[in-house]
């Protein structure tokens, strides 16, 4: 199983970006899906997560929207009104079941850089 993240880049303050993360391989079911970020010198933090509905860190509420397409095993993060403080490497994470009677295992994507700068 692999998670492939994409969509990062450089954007000016107030701009928008959309991150995508697709899971591939032998997948029976996906439960939790989420986005974390890690800025230089800081700990990795959970930004947004989704089961059936989204949950958000206070710092991004009202600006970021998480969604998922279960048919495509993909999670998205729409980021609007970006601020310099949002600059970080963004990682996707998912709890994946590879067989019907197996447990869920946590997988991570490779990270995608988001830089907000004028």
Features:
118 residues; 4-stranded antiparallel β-sheet; 7-stranded mixed β-sheet
Overview of the structural elements:
The chain has 118 residues and is mostly beta strands. Helix content is 0%, strand content 57%. It contains no helices and eleven strands. Strands 2, 4, 5, 6, 9, 10 and 11 form a seven-stranded mixed β-sheet that branches. It has a four-stranded antiparallel β-sheet with strand order 1-3-8-7, with no helix packed on it. A hairpin with a 3-residue loop joins strand 5 and strand 6. It is elongated and about 50 Å long. The chain starts with a strand and ends with a strand.
Mean pLDDT: 96
Ends distance: 38 Å
Structural class: mainly beta
Q: What about the largest sheet?
A: 7 strands, mixed
Helix percent reads under 10%
Q: What are the segments in which pLDDT stays under 50 over at least 5 consecutive residues?
A: none
Q: Count of DSSP helices?
A: 0
Based on CA atoms alone, the radius of gyration comes out at 14 Å
Order of helices and strands: EEEEEEEEEEE
The global form is elongated
Number of strands: 11
